[in-house]
Amino acid sequence: MKKRFQILLFALVFAVVACDKPIMPKPKHLINEKQMIDMLVDVHLAEATYNKYRYDSVMQDNSSANFYASVLDKYAVSDSLFEQSYVYYASLPKKFEKMYRKVLSKLSEQEQEFSGRKEELELEFEENPGKNAR
């Protein structure tokens, strides 16, 4: 019984110590949390856009890498800096989960805003069908 207790105590201490330290050291250059959240939102939007239109003839010469590159260009961030920052934040699960909650919240807000605009445009078109035809 005493040996079981020692093993359990050792495992508990190990778990507490292991969870306290980040898996990887903080990089010298790190994208700040707010910008990383904004970039992740744009990455998800770019990915969704690519997936929606990838079979269109216009998109035949494009790859998803082009969409990711456009996000990196928008923020003037190198792919290695983005990758280092992403891996660092992912090594801190609680912080990363909070960040992703914010990402999902922003995506939901944009979706609601877009669907609201779409409904407004449809109503406007129904009210004035001749005015919108050009």
Order of helices and strands: HHHHHH
The main pleated sheet reads as: none
Tally the beta strands: 0
Structural class: mainly alpha
Q: Kindly report the oligomeric state of this protein.
A: single chain
Uncertain runs are: none
Share of β-strand residues: under 5%
Residue-averaged pLDDT = 77
Mass-distribution shape: extended
Distance between the termini: 85 Å
Number of helical elements: 6
Q: Helicity range of the residues?
A: over 70%
Rg for CA atoms = 23 Å
Descriptive account of the structure:
- This protein has 134 residues and is an all-alpha fold.
- It is built from six helices and no strands.
- It is extended, with a radius of gyration of 23 Å.
TL;DR?
With 134 residues, this protein is mainly alpha-helical.
List keywords for this structure.
134 residues, mainly alpha, 0% strand, extended
Which secondary structure elements does this structure contain, and how are they paired or packed?
Blueprint: H1 2-20, H2 33-53, H3 64-75, H4 79-90, H5 93-127, H6 129-132
Helix pairs in contact: 2-3, 2-5
